[in-house]
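Target protein
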Amino acid sequence: MKVSNLYHVAVFLVLLIGMGNSHDYQDALSKAILFFEGQRSGFLPADQRMNWRGNSGLSDGWNYNTDLTGGYYDAGDNVKFGFPMAFTTTMMAWSVLEFGDMMPPNELRNAFVAIRWATDYLLKTVSQPNRIFVQVGDPSSDHDCWERPEDMDTSRTVYAVDAPNAASDVAGETAAALAASSMAFRSSDPGYSETLLRNAINAFQFADSYRGAYSDNANVKYGACPYYCDFDGYQDELLWGAAWLRRATQDDNFLNYIQSNGKTLGADDNINEFGWDNKHAGLNVLVSKEVLEGNMYSLESYRASAESFMCTLIPESPSSHIEYTSGGLVYRPGGSNLQHATSIAFLELVYANYLTRTSQVINCGNVYVSAQTLRQHAKRQVDYILGDNPMGLSYMVGYSNYYPQRIHHRASSLPSIKDHPQFIACKDGSIYYNSTNSNPNVLVGAIVGGPGEDDFYVDDRVDFRKSEPTTYINAPFVGVLAYFAANPNFS
């Protein structure tokens, strides 16, 4: 009872004095991008800044006689899951496309490096005709160990899908990632941009020709599930991939695809979610650009769905139904909640840009929602994550003086191979997992899963739903922070 009372007093004090804090968004942006260096798999370059990491996964792909080194570990484990990695890449590229001109030049360069680390790997996954590599690493054996990526001796099973088996979701998302990235690289590296676009088109053709979910394949299912099963169907990734290819190519064939397949592939389902498994809200925002800025009224239904989604986010709107914690955080059940906060804030800022350029507002029944309102709403999510919350805690590691010390992350929680070069076996890492000590390596910029519905967070690496960072929490936050770094006094 005593602890509970102290907690509520602390909540009151933080809410009373903390909400006026101004944040160093530029510092947070630098750290959000730096995080990706801690997630790297493969042979690390000489300019690796997260220097407590070492080379890992150097034989990935050997059993297929192909090079599948590189890419990112999705979270605090040592598996390379293609589905969330491709989504992460799409969101990093979209962040640069929408907000790159607001980034300091050095951080824009760092963002390009982070994107390319992913796209170089994704190109390898679609390098063989009628085949896509969707995962490297057996999650059962991996999750049974607490082991540094540099020491991995678990099975590096390669999961591939060959035509006519289906992988519309992963192939569609990979097409989106490569298409978005091709636009990002177009001016700085046109040759690489062309390679990305050519492979994006091929990946989309695979996705569309052999329709179905990758996790329905018997040889993939037990590796992908329950971690990154396709829970919400593959149809959204087909539209998402086509929409990105339309934007990258301006080809009317892709325009026709999203016009004619919208209804059959569920574009009107109006699912109010956006993340690695469900692209509906992001798809509608992306396509709305052509309606708002290009007067492409044949796509009006996408705009209507995008605005319907925005209305659900605004508490004053009659159609509001997104849950918030009492501290003001977007909340959805299921763990890793901050993925929803970062991705929703991103979509709000993107849509606000479209509204600003065309001097429009959203009609939410009896409430008109402006670009300013959307930005204010996004800023509340950002500031909550950075410390304006009932715990007074920054949920970004290394930002401010008070942040999670015991994140659920193998490489961060085990001694660095630079300090402790001796091999640490699978089960020998358990003492570090169960320890109450702070992690020895600071994974700067990592955003953890975050607090529960009660705004409460216990700094405990065992509670992975709250304490594990993921690449797809950070990726949209790069664009969000770029906006506020350029507009720090926005209110």
Residues 246 and 253 are 8 Å apart (CA to CA).
